[in-house]
User: Fold this.
Amino acid sequence: MIKLPAYIHFLQPGLMSSIQDLGRFGLAQFGVPYSGAMDRYAVAQVNFILRNPKDAAVLEMTGIGPEMVFESETRIVFAGAEVEALLNGKGIKYGQVIEIQPDDHLVVKKIKKGQWAYMGIQGGFESETIAGSKSWYGSITPRTKITKGDSVCYLSEENRFYPPVETKAKIRSDWFRNSKIQVYPGPEWELLPKLLHNRILNKSFTISDMINRMAYQLEEVIAHDMEPILTSPVYPGTIQLTPSGKLIVLMRDAQVTGGYPRILQVENASLNVLTQKRTGEKITFNIS
Amino acid sequence: MEIKFEYTHSKLIELSWPKSISPETLKQLIQVKKFLEHEYAEGIKEIRMGFHTLSLRLQLDIQKADCLELLDEINTLDFSDFEFQSDTWSIPVYYGAEFGKDLFKLSELLQLSEKEIITLHASKEYQLYFYGFLPGFMYLGGLDPKLHIPRKSNPERTVKPGSVAIGGSQTGIYPIESPGGWHVIGNCPISLFDIHQTPPVQPKIGDLIRFRSIDLQEYNDLKHLSKLGNYTWKHD
Assistant:
């Protein structure tokens, strides 16, 4: 099979589109975040359907999606948040292989349901691998997000000899509607009085408009008199309690250390669900 | 020193020492980290450090009872098997003027002359506790108490790469552009983090850092050298 490099040219960048894989590991000891796709489950889905390696790089989009032209033939799949997208003016299907021909025009107009949408491509995107990962992160990779006129490489295959994956088992997006988030006690959980344990576990929290790849802040305030901690390790999924009583859930681009009490740690699968929550949506915490 | 453990889940635990920033605690953290990396290399995915904590992400599942056994093992450890050597690095800094835009204000706040601040800052040795906050950002202990100052109440949106700053009881260098709430007193002309090098940083945990006051000529020369990738890090 001959694979030829080809490019997607971005006519419009969208709000925050970037190339992500499963992340950059082993450099946290030097202060480098993991990065990687916000919703790892969606990445697993698109790469499974396309028979890609698990860590093949995908296009991540949020808010308003990008507009692009494909140079050469390939196949793509959408998963994660549901999008309204047009391929040469016609609507596309979620979770299904879409055949792409040279000069095809794709516009992802908006994200309809969920927060982060993913477009997988046959073989994965071929942007530069830096320290073991293709995930874009400012100061590590040359690009942080796609800008107007940008191009990203993929490998185009003319002949494909293998049959496509059976997609009768339709991929659905309702898995991230679950509002119950599974958590574990964080290192400072036991320093909180029992009363606040109950308050946090019985309360429903609202996703604020301060949400990005680094962290999601929640609206509600938990009044407390906890002291700040000496700077300690944090991870994606660590929930910090700020001095003002706001809860901050750290996400994929989070710093490797922090100075706020780490009250909870979100379970991995639940973190994927949480990334898909939008401003104004409600969640509750369920401790394991 | 009494070590405790916090159990988050079967693949994430934390060892913690009494809450303090001290060279003695740091020494034990480094030694226990060395021991774990030596004895349990396959079981551990990653060890992250804080001022008084070691966070362990595990490859294998661990139960609370296993943690107690691990603590026993650590408590009976002969630390002399895990000695380490601290190297001393000299880091050039151009203090004040347009590179240390908060120095003047700081001298008012601290009731010290700019020169006194520079002398105090450049006369101490600082120990590297760990990297965090930003890629290549060193958490340094040992700032003279005369220079302790609360952080800015309104953090700056952008602090220039190389900025040498003071905040709370700490001092540090911003390796890359970032928002920041510390008071900037100078700038370091050499690159502190290079993702294309292995490792991407030079000083290792436990090493000592000394700041050396340089003039504008040397600042420009070193900046040029560093840009070309021709600056060689050297320790004493």
Observations:
- The longest helix of chain B spans residues 23-39.
